[in-house]
# Entry
Amino acid sequence: MRSVSSETARFIPMVVAAATLIACSHSQPAPEAAPVAQSASPAATPAPEKAPPPPVGPIAPVSIYFGSNSADLDEAARVALTRLSSQAQSQPHVDLRIEGNCDDRGSRGYNLALGKRRAEAAKDYLVFLGVEASRITAVSNGKDKPRARGRGEQVWKKNRRDDLMPAPRAVAQASH
# Structure
C-alpha cells in the first residue's frame, strides 16, 4: 500500500466534501430561474410579495343636495364627497366637473351666484380631502337645468343640488 503524505492527507477531507456537495446538487430538482433570468424587462415582472391593488371602477357621477338658500354641506353630502374623493385619487388622469344648481325661486343673478357657491363648497371639500384643485372645474347653472319641474318643496328640493361627474381633461380644462 502506498503511503500518503501528511500534506496530501490534509486535502482529502476537503475533496471528499466537495465531491459530496457536487453529487448531492445533481440529485436535487432544478432550482427556479433567478428573477433576472425571468424577464428582460423589469416592468413586466410584478413584485410577488405585494398583493395586487383592488380593481378600480369608473368615477361614478353623484349629486349632493342643499337646504334652501344654502351652500352648506350636510353629513350626507360629505359622505358622498368622501367616496368620490377616493375614486378620484385612484384615477389621477380623470378630472371632475361640479355643476351647482338651484330651484326656480329667486332672480337669475342670485341663483347663478348661489349655484357657484354650492359648486365651490363641494370643490373646497374635495381639495381638503386630497384631490388636486387643478383637476376640478366648478360652474353654476343657476336655475337653468332643473331636475324636476313644478312647484312645491319636493320639486325644489330635487333642484337644490350639485351634480359631480368625471370629465375628460380637455372638457374640464376648456371650461375653467
In short: Residues 70 and 114 are 8 Å apart (CA to CA). The helical segments are 6-27, 35-38, 75-90, 108-128, 153-159, 169-174. The longest strand covers residues 95-101. The longest helix spans residues 6-27.
